[in-house]
Write a structure and sequence with these properties.
Elements: E1 2-5, H1 10-22, E2 27-30, H2 36-43, E3 53-56, E4 59-62, H3 64-73, H4 85-115, H5 126-147, H6 160-168, H7 183-193, H8 196-200
Parallel strand pairs: 1-2
Antiparallel strand pairs: 1-3, 3-4
């Protein structure tokens, strides 16, 4: 299988984390998203022109959480994505929650504080940041309550839910996400960051 990926992308990191934990061998095709020609080439295999894209023979799959599930489906005896219906529904619930609520709150803050000036679009917009920080605090409180007294989001076993949500938060420090009031969330995130797969998928230092 081939993975079109970028070390800087939280979405690509979701797929990379699963592959690292499961030991799935991948041929990696790095994509520099700052290069117009490479973005154009990416659009030929993903109409959204985004990473990651997984190619398995003549099968192409985009959307990071779908790739996470596909890698698990092709890995016997894995525990990241349980087969029991209710346990799987719980994982799916948090994957959808991440996509629908947490990621849309985090993304604009990260863009404004980290990427906007870097790509020549001016300074961060404080009003926009304040707006999305309110959304983030709403959903961070939900996650903080969920992980209280637990090792992982769903109990004692690391799942795709943990990996997906942690990847969403990967730039928490340089983006200055306001998470100080959520100790359970921060303790959970530290446990994910201590995993060998997390350390092996760290993006290059950018001096933030």
């Amino acid at each position: 299988m081939k993975l079109h990926t970028s070390k800087m992308s939280g979405s690509a990191r979701r797929a990379e984390l699963v592959a690292a934990i499961l030991g799935v061998p991948l041929e990696r095709q790095p994509v520099d998203l700052s290069v117009a020609e490479q973005r154009a080439g990416l659009a030929a295999i993903n109409p959204n022109a985004k990473v990651p894209v997984l190619e398995d023979g003549d099968f192409r799959l985009w959307e990071s959480r779908a790739i996470m599930q596909y890698l698990c489906a092709n890995s016997p005896d894995q525990t990241l994505y349980p087969s029991e219906p209710r346990a799987r529904a719980e994982v799916d619930r948090w994957l959808f929650w991440d996509a629908a609520h947490l990621s849309p709150a985090v993304g604009p803050i990260t863009f404004e504080r980290m990427w906007k000036k870097l790509i020549g679009q001016g300074d961060a917009d404080p009003a926009l940041i304040a707006r999305y920080e309110r959304f983030l605090q709403q959903f961070a409180a939900v996650l903080d309550a969920q992980v209280a007294g637990k090792t992982w989001i769903l109990g004692d076993t690391l799942t795709l839910a943990d990996l997906s949500i942690a990847a969403t938060l990967m730039y928490a420090k340089p983006a200055r996400l306001p998470l100080e009031r959520y100790p359970n969330l921060l303790a959970w995130f530290a446990r994910v960051q201590a995993q060998p797969a997390w350390r092996s998928t760290e993006p290059p230092a950018m001096g933030w």
